[in-house]
Amino acid sequence: ALSFFIRTLHDNLLTSLPVGIFDKLTQFKSTPYMKSWEGFMPNGGVELSNNALISLPVGVFDKLTQLTTYLSLDNNKLTSLPAGIFDKLTRLKSYVFLRNNKELTSLPGGIFDQLTQLQTDLYLDPSVQCSIPKQNAPVLGCQKIPHFAFGYTRWAKCTIDVSSNTSLALTDLSSAIVEKKRASCPNLPANDTAIRLVDNLLTSLPETLFTNLNLTDLAILDLSGNRLAELPQAVAQLTKLLIL
In a 3-state reduction of DSSP, which class is residue 212? Predict the structure, then answer.
């Protein structure tokens, strides 16, 4: 069976996809995670992010029945999705990205209902109204949070989430992290921990932030959705990061 990554279509100016474009890829599937590409991404999937897609053809993914991980539609111009667009992807287990499609504010009822194997890594914008299949409810809940970010569980046992606080001052950052750690994983070492500082409009980080908090062995740091013009010096102290 063929195993490959539809990866070279991203970062283009595609506004649409031809009907049946993937219909011959009936043996397409995801393969185990690559160690050579960012250390954690799957070596197989469908990458259509960073285009200008306005809509998708009905049934465009119907023949990709062997796909098990990674479908990205991030950063397009989608205004809607066809009902049943994911219905044939019954083996899909993780990595579904639908972020930053600003006009996509709702999804068809039951759009995820056939994704009965989906366990982690469903990323949506907070404005999107959706429903999640009942069997996945313990893992995937349609909550008002910046992203569905369950993808860290493979590398970290606990996530300290200090996100979506645009009024968070740098002087309050340490205490916010300490408070969240105390509530979420007080006894776990740093190498089992992820920190999300997403969508806080941060322009910098205190240089000694992680050393002062004894978190220099941190496994994962997510700084997406801020206003950082350069990589903070504090990150240089995190010599055991798996994901940044």
Answer: helix
The answer to whether the beta carbons of residues 109 and 131 sit under 8 Å apart is yes
Please name which of 137, 168, 134 lies closest in space to residue 150, comparing C-alpha atoms: 137
pLDDT tens-digit map of 182-228: 988 888 888 888 888 888 888 888 888 888 899 888 888 888 777 87
Angstrom CA distances, 211 to 184, 192, 208, 214, stand at 20, 16, 5, 5
**89: CB partners within 8 A, 6+ apart:** 61, 64, 65, 67, 71, 114, 115
- What tokens does 201 get? 């409009």
Condensed to tens digits (0 to 9), the pLDDT of residues 59-87 reads: 999 998 888 878 889 889 999 999 999 99
Residue 121 identity (one-letter amino acid): D
Name the one residue in this structure whose structure tokens are 């049943």: 84
Give the Cβ contact number of residue 156 at 10 Å: 22
Higher-confidence position of 234 and 146: 234
Name the residue type at position 27: Q
Residue pair 150/93 in contact (Cβ under 8 Å)? The answer is no
pTM of the predicted protein model: 0.54
Is the CB of residue 198 less than 8 Å from the CB of residue 176? no
Alpha-helical (H) ranges within 113-232 are 170-184, 209-212
